[in-house]
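new request in #modeling-help
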Amino acid sequence: MKGISLTRFIIQEQRRTPGASGNFTLLLNDIASACKAISQEVNRGALTGVLGAAESENVQGEVQKKLGLITNDILVNALEWSGQVAAMVSEETPDIIPVPVHYPKGKHLICFDPLDGSSNIDVNISVGTIFSILRCPSEAVEQPTEAAFLQPGRNQVCAGFCVYGPSTIMVLTTGNGVNGFTLDRGVGEFLLTHPNMRIPEEAGEFAINMSNRRFWEEPIRRYVDECVKGTDGGREKNFNMRWIASMVSEVFRILTRGGIFMYPFDYRNPTRPGKLRLLYEANPMSFIVEQAGGVSSTGRQRIMDIQTESIHQRVPVILGTKNEVERLESYYRESLET
Ligand code: AHM
Ligand code: MG
């Protein structure tokens, strides 16, 4: 299987799924094409003048980056014409993105963060695209509203992300495990390089933005303090720390060599129960992590069981190696009992 193209891989998966139409294959091909174009834009960077801030803010009041808006347009253009999509949600757009009336509609809802890791764009550190595919309730296909998107993450039919790093790598799940494909620029195709990715059961690394420590809840402080103390504390080993501030890179590292990633609830802003967005960051990453044998939680509940209340909803995210996430969940339970 190693070395086969993403297109062939998807078609072979489709043949194994009774009753599957080719529509989903077309949709994934469009996403892959968009990611190739985004990879090219990210790669050319300052040469084409796409770095820096745009003169606008997103719905969350964050200054938008030029490249964030360009990559958003690439994805919307690649998806809206295809006939596979009912509507889209993007980190860069306040409302749902409808399919223009002159194009046919399909039965899928797509949620995406076109360029995650925005603080890294101008400093030449890896960024990525994250996407999630839901089925559109059949009665909503013709006139989808925000309500159609308010589904729990366990309803996802596919999730993936692309990291634009030293190599461009796409990681994908349709609920049958996790596979990674590296973009071969010579051939112009994503080729299977990381079949059946499994998160190692032993973790030696934790990832969290330590500068927020004073705002954390007690279970997070307890867990991280123990990691920092290593063998001098209650743990049987020493830990290393990483913080790339690009969730795509952190999750790819965890898929490759294990570990735990935390962007937990903190007390900085009482209206914000976390930083990461449920529909296009937390849910797709949770689907991938669970499919690779890991766990993804807010500390208090499984992320994919959260009932979505709004399209840009934020949630705490703790994901990675099963034993480590479960240990932290047990600290949350203990702190709630006392
Ligand atoms: P973004 O979508 O605006 O890029 O925000 C999400 C990113 C994640 O990739 C990363 O884990 C986190 O923000 C880093 O945040 P911070 O700069 O607070 O450490
Ligand atoms: Mg993001």
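bot summary: The pocket of magnesium ion (ligand 2) is lined by residues 91, 113, 116, 281 (CB under 6 Å).
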